[in-house]
Design a protein that fits this description.
The structure holds 2 protein chains of 2 kinds.
Chain A (H helix, E strand, L loop, with lengths): L5 E5 L20 H13 L4 E4 L7 E2 L2 E2 L10 H8 L7 E7 L5 H14 L4 E6 L4 H4 L13 H17 L6 E4 L4 E3 L6 E5 L4 E5 L11 E4 L4 H10 L2 E2 L6 H13 L12 E2 L2 E2 L1 E3 L3 H15 L2 H12 L25 E2 L10 H15 L3 H8 L5 E3 L1 H13 L5 E4 L9 H13 L12 H4 L6
Parallel strand pairs in A: 1-2, 1-18, 2-5, 5-6, 6-11, 11-12, 12-13, 14-18, 15-17
Antiparallel strand pairs in A: 3-4, 3-16, 7-8, 9-10
Helix pairs in contact in A: 3-5, 5-6, 9-11, 12-13
Chain B lengths: L6 E6 L22 H13 L4 E4 L19 H8 L7 E7 L5 H14 L5 E5 L4 H5 L11 H23 L6 E4 L4 E3 L9 E2 L4 E2 L14 E5 L3 H10 L2 E4 L4 H10 L4 E10 L12 E5 L1 H13 L4 E6 L4 H16 L12 H4 L8 H9 L1
Parallel strand pairs in B: 1-2, 1-13, 2-3, 3-4, 4-9, 9-10, 10-11, 11-12, 11-13
Antiparallel strand pairs in B: 5-6, 7-8
Helix pairs in contact in B: 3-5, 5-6, 7-8, 8-9
The chains are: A alpha/beta, B alpha/beta.
């Protein structure tokens, strides 16, 4: 029997992948948009719906970045509301472990798990920067080296809180007058480097015994954290060779923690462009890429590497001859992409060489180097490609990132999913009632 | 009609406000942690055309007595879960300010306003309990002195101020989607709130655009002078606990808030048990007797009532199927919902954005 594919839908987010200028693009705030995408994902029998989070608006050159979608609703609140309009779909949200306390975040996820009948998932992320901290009373920031220790301890603490209620704690026996069979249900004490807390947790054990845990970090510490604690990992490695390398690496780490290889699902993020034919899809993808990277966006991207004001440069012209400013004072704040370039001068040199060799303008180059479209082709091509990657252990499935809200998944759901179902590699009905069951994970 | 229509809310807490309510024949104690339970209760309140429901919450267990209900779900998430399944009723969850982040609560209540299309409110609650402080392990909370109580309320006032500034931190028309220039927002219409107070500071702006009501309805329970001053500064609706009509008149004179709602714990017949220790007066009797009391207190200046059903669902049904028809017969309660937001229903205008107003005065 072939491996079964897992698929999730990522609500288009606050980045330039999301095309807001398309006439088909709707609101990123109004609840109807979330309902539409979630219901499409559920009709297509996807495992879960995924919502990212932001805690400080991004800035560039000292001003709020205005070229991408700006703003989003609260993760928990949207997911709880979506539980009302879906029945089987998992509801996964990113919640930062740095700017939330374990007691509160544990009870929010336990509440979501109860209110959704066992469909909650927590994508645990960390922040450490003072920039984000300025929005929080806890303020300040963590040393970058401490962020995974806090995340690990926050997650361990949350799991202790979930486990503090025996599954049969509530008797609710009207005749005898015993509400709580275990009077000390919820009692906990946790002391470590980051938390010194005790008392009683006030949410009974939830249908999944706690949310499914997702993790997205790619560093060595992040991979180790995932191997130790996560149920699924949200990776950036969606190609065959790169995916296989990552897949082997994280699955090999599991034994150390006494875990089976199947207990951690590897789910890379993937964008896609569908066409009637492969050529048609390639042509559409070129149009989408130009929608995603306007001239103004290209200059802003270049500024993030160069760490300089490049507004005087022509996006249709050549790359700057001046070198990046490597002082610490970054021009862009609150953007993950900035941190990807550890050696800006080397990257700038690579980009210059590439632009010269391929005769690329600034905009052409940025389109090339920021391109993430994993799947481009006809429905048949994409279905075969997804299946091949999963059967070759490059992943266990994909988290699909449509570029248009809220209809961006319609075509995929209508064409690719039925092909995967015909191949017998994707469900036609949900297997279980909880997300954990649908992901094929052992109960906790 | 001599009196304006009165406003009516119910306060939902577990199986009801009576400690043994969960043992009543029609109580559903095993379902307290399911969505279905809350959907059914709030649908009943909506069928009764009530203004809004409040949902109790706290950051700890209710008691240590295994004969009483223990445990509860996050009230903001209950409200959000129910929002898409209701159309008219206001949804006012309780959220604690003492150990939580104003940035998170601001976007959560704003989002509840989006998912409910303008029906969100918030009951601001303080946590003076040492046990709840220990759940966070970051600070000690004391109410040993008047000064320490005042500090807790001052902190709460700063918290609400931050939340309100964050709601205003986006002007209503900030999203422009100007394809010609490539700008999604007009960033001049987003504002840093730059709050600096005694207890914390918050930069802003919010992540979430200004909610449909502009400012969701802020409510608070208050029993005496310090909380009255807090409510005047921070709340649109204050819940108070008069003993009788004369006391109600006295309280209304003391607290200057647009809406003064009187809280009552309510047992409507048939009364099996009314064993409840309460800050609010406990009413037991018929719907007609309750209607008499409400109208007498309304005469004393009370603008609305938050009834706390002693037993759920029976006393909620007593309100929706007994009290409400009685009030409708007397011409003092709506027979159908008018379209509009929770603010509209309470006669609270949609507030101007403080930052837009600032910009206009500078321009």
């Amino acid at each position: 029997m072939p491996k079964q594919i897992h698929l999730a839908a990522h609500f288009p987010g606050v980045n330039n992948t999301t095309v807001w200028s398309d006439p088909a693009a709707g609101s990123h705030i109004e609840f109807d948009s979330f309902v539409k995408l979630a219901q499409t994902a559920e009709r297509a029998r996807f495992d879960f719906f995924f919502l990212a989070e932001g805690l400080r608006l991004r800035e560039q050159g000292g001003q709020i970045y205005d070229l991408d979608v700006v703003g989003r609703p609260d993760t928990f609140t949207v997911l709880a509301a979506l539980a009302a309009v879906t029945e089987h779909l998992g509801l996964a949200g990113t919640i930062n472990s740095t700017f939330n306390e374990p007691y509160e975040v544990a009870r929010q996820f336990a509440s979501l798990d109860h209110l959704s009948g066992g469909r909650a998932a927590w994508n645990v992320v960390t922040s450490w920067d003072a920039f984000t901290g300025e929005n929080f009373r806890r303020g300040g920031f963590l040393a970058e080296s401490d962020r995974y220790s806090r995340a690990t301890q926050a997650l361990e603490t949350a799991k202790e809180l979930y486990d503090s209620w025996p599954a049969d704690a509530i008797a609710a026996d009207k005749a005898s007058g015993v509400f709580l069979r275990h009077p000390d249900a919820g009692t906990f004490r946790h002391t470590d480097q980051h938390f010194d807390i005790s008392g009683r947790f006030n949410v009974p054990r939830s249908p999944q015994g706690g949310p499914v845990i997702l993790q997205a970090g790619d560093s060595d510490a992040g991979r180790e954290f995932a191997a130790a604690t996560a149920d699924a990992i949200f990776s950036r490695h969606g190609t065959l060779e790169d995916g296989q390398k990552f897949y082997t690496d994280v699955k090999d780490r599991l034994a150390k923690y006494g875990r089976e290889r199947d207990s951690l699902k590897v789910l890379p993020a993937a964008t896609f462009v569908l066409g009637d034919t492969d050529n048609d899809a390639q042509e559409k993808a070129r149009v989408v890429r130009r929608q995603q990277v306007s001239g103004a966006t290209a200059i802003k991207f270049l500024e993030q590497l160069w760490n300089r004001d490049l507004s005087a440069y022509d996006p249709e012209g050549p790359l700057p001859e001046i070198d990046p400013d490597v002082s610490d004072d970054h021009i862009a704040r609150g953007r993950a992409s900035v941190r990807m370039h550890r050696d800006p001068i080397a990257t700038a040199n690579e980009w210059r060489q590439k632009a010269e060799a391929e005769k690329l303008s600034i905009r052409d180059l940025i389109i090339e180097v920021t391109g993430r479209q994993t799947f481009i082709g006809s429905a048949t091509t994409i279905a075969e490609s997804i299946n091949h990657l999963v059967q070759s252990d490059a992943s266990d499935g994909f988290i699909l990132v449509p570029h248009v809200t809220p209809g961006g998944l319609d075509e995929f759901a209508g064409t690719v999913v039925p092909l995967l179902q015909e191949k017998g590699v994707f469900r036609t009905e949900y297997e279980g009632s909880t997300l954990r069951e649908n992901l094929g994970l052992a109960p906790r | 009609m001599s009196m304006p229509n009165l406003h009516l809310a119910v306060a939902l807490d577990g199986a009801g406000w009576a400690p043994d309510a969960w043992r009543e024949p029609d109580a559903r104690p095993a379902e307290l942690f399911t969505a279905r339970y809350w959907i059914d209760l709030i649908a009943e309140a909506e069928a009764g055309k009530l203004d809004f429901v409040t949902i109790e919450d706290a950051l700890g267990v209710q008691s240590d007595d295994p004969a009483q209900v223990q445990g509860r779900l996050d009230a903001v998430l209950i409200a959000s879960r129910v929002a898409p399944l209701t159309r008219h009723i206001g949804l006012v969850p309780t959220a604690t300010v003492t150990h939580t982040e104003p940035f998170h609560i601001s976007k959560a209540i704003a989002t509840l306003d989006y998912v409910s299309r303008g029906r969100a409110g918030w009951r601001v609650q303080l946590s003076p309990k040492a046990g709840e402080a220990a759940h966070f392990g970051r600070r000690q909370v004391s109410i040993d002195t008047q000064a320490s109580i005042q500090d807790l309320f001052d902190e709460a006032a700063d918290y609400v101020e931050v939340v309100r500034r964050l709601w205003d931190s986006w002007e209503d028309d900030a999203e422009i989607r100007d394809a010609a220039t490539g700008r999604f927002i007009d960033r001049d219409k987003l504002h840093y709130i730059n709050f600096e107070g005694r207890f914390f500071s918050v930069k802003g702006p919010s992540i979430t655009p200004r909610p449909p009501q502009g400012q969701p309805v802020v409510t608070a329970l208050a029993h005496n002078d310090i909380p009255y001053r807090f409510a005047e500064k921070s709340a649109d609706v204050v819940y108070v606990t008069p003993k009788d009509a004369a006391d109600a008149r006295h309280i209304v004179d003391q607290v200057k808030v647009r809406h003064v709602f009187a809280d009552l714990v309510v047992f409507l017949e048939p009364v099996r048990s009314a064993a409840v220790l309460s800050d609010a007066r406990v009413f037991t009797g018929t719907p007609a007797q309750l209607a008499d009391l409400l109208l007498a207190w309304q005469e004393a200046g009370i603008t609305g009532f938050r009834l706390r059903p002693g037993r759920l669902p029976s006393d909620l049904r007593g309100i929706t199927r007994g009290l409400v028809p009685e009030l409708q017969r007397r011409g003092v309660f709506r027979t159908q919902y008018e379209p509009g937001t929770l603010r509209d229903r309470l006669g609270l205008p949609r507030p101007a954005n403080r930052y837009a107003a600032e910009g206009a005065s500078v321009a």
